[in-house]
Amino acid sequence: MTTAQSANQQVISDETMTQQNTKAADKPNMEERQQTEEKVVEEEEPQNKAAAAEEANNNNQGNNIVQGNPSLEARVFEEQQQQQRMEDAGVQNPAEEKPENKVTEEDQAQRMQQQQQQMQDNAQQHDHQQQQQNDEAHHQERIKVENPEKTSEVVSSGMIPKESKESKRSWSTQAGESESQKERRKEDETKGQDSELPKDTWQLCNVTAGPDYIPCLDNEKALKKLRTTGHFEHRERHCPEEPPTCLVPLPDGYKRPIPWPTSRDKIWYHNVPHTKLAEFKGHQNWVKVTGEFLTFPGGGTQFIHGALHYIDFLQRAVPKIGWGKHTRVILDVGCGVASFGGYMFERDVLTMSFAPKDEHEAQVQFALERGIPAISAVMGSKRLPFPSAVFDLIHCARCRVPWHNEGGLLLLELNRLLRPGGYFVWSATPVYQKLKDDVEIWQAMSALTVSMCWDLVTIKRDKLNKIGAAIYRKPSTNDCYDQRKKNFPPMCPNDDDPNAAWSVPLQACMHRVPSEPSIRGSRWPDDWPRRLQKPPYWLNSTQMGIYGKPAPQDFTADYHHWKNVVTVTYIKGLGINWDGVRNVMDMRAVYGGFAAALKDMKVWVVNVVNVDSPDTLPIIFERGLFGIYHDWCESYSTYPRTYDLLHADHLLSKLKTRCKLVPVLAEVDRMLRPGGTFIVRDESSTVGEVEGILKSMHWEVHLTNNNDKQGILSAQKGDWRPETFALSSS
Known about the structure:
The protein is α/β, with parallel strands linked by helices. Helix 2 runs antiparallel to helix 3 (46-63) and helix 2 packs across helix 4. It is globular and about 85 Å long. This is Methyltransferase.
């Protein structure tokens, strides 16, 4: 664990903006207040709460003498949240020791001696801390001048605290939703827990996939045990029982990636040295081998003359689509090399592209190397890891999915993901060709979509590309459902949770459209970009937010907090070359505030909501951002070396209670590109552990700032790889 930065440290993290305002001489009073507040949390007696509040008020009045001190309310709130962080970290208050743990006279004498020594140290450090406080006061004043619109609370609260206990009762988790859903279907799944172990040496992963190793998709041992592959089970996630602790090798000749936007058109061949796709799809302008580069002309199977022409063709076909305003977040099924999503950025649209890791060699890896969002996934036997009713539009261009089979099982999964009133664009040969198979598929799709109450808005032909597209619209009311003569596809049972999506089997049914005005999905979000900053209409003020305030206020405070952190600390203070940053992941997103703060930068951010955290992913989508559910005790479904920056805010200390830290950081190393940055904000003890493990992987730690019990670390991955291989990694 590292020490605090010296007095001449040029960068003052946002955490110090709050914690430096309390003098060292006040520490005994702080401990007394914490002990009192801990008893309040344990006993929940109103009388004790009032006494603690009065004591906190008296102490704060005595301490509020430093220039730039937060208000009394903010101070008390901060101290309460500090107590919450101690409880989450498993730190026991000495005031709560059990009677049988009484200390001896020798222990008491030792403690008194330690306290006297601490008082002497405090006296020696008083002048030093006073100077820091004066500097901090000037720093806060500068922020107030430069950002007059921000309240004093936002400026002084450098760190949003961890979740309050009360708020956890107000929010479901994806793990809870999905487990309950699987129990209702008589499908149970359990997960073990592992303790933390030290890691002294590293080895290369010894796997068939080599530099392209994705642990949960390349688990050969599990794949051999599959009884069937009829629903593409072999393309789904099958994670190793023990997460890997090996490091993935680099491809021979690997170079630092070409920056965006040049990367959209060409990448280094040796970074993704696969030629099959160029051989199979080169004539369709997917990808070509050009010397030491792989080049992407911007075409696709359905738009060989360029994605932009095709995108504008769809807009002309249905003007109400409104790229970049009405339609902001879309899903591209069977994306290929994701040129469609790559060019959608020019229309201010975010596209989550996905395709399986199959015979179309490394298509998702091509996409990510180009700087385009994508994940490796398949429409198989389980729901995709997204909430219901969050995508404004879903696109399929020759995506090779049998939508009409098995009662429309896979198309009904898209129906779950699509917003009421959202569009489904189907650009495939059955729409415009008259071959026997195409005609049969078209007839089956027509019957299915009618029974699903989808409205066929239009069928348009693109003369340049010689293709056609059918555009459907999902109903925004239940009128059609109620008027159907046949209950096929059937409506889902009332207890079927449409938001349960973590390893939940597919079900061939439809969920009703919300009709209550205050329920999510009952109306369309505001146009982009207004929806980014505005709390969703369905966030109820009577519901407590993640951080203890009414949910809409919590949302707004989180947004201002991350605007401040990103502007003051991340952009100006960590020495990151943001020109080289394109692919970003927030490994523990809450409301998506970190991603929202990066809106004006040339980056995209995938927001990960952990399955054991409050389920806030629908909020993230509602504000025009995107994300995914995941459990960081398992490997993520992406290729190695695909992200420029990973951000973990109070994630790792929580994970340590369920799984080992070393495999998690091995996964971070797998996902991050050489030269990429990892930002960790967490408990000081956890930050110290992380620093040690990263240094053992020869990472360069640029900044470690520990204050009280909180720390921030910024580290850069290097090119180092071990020289020996593990015995077996799968």
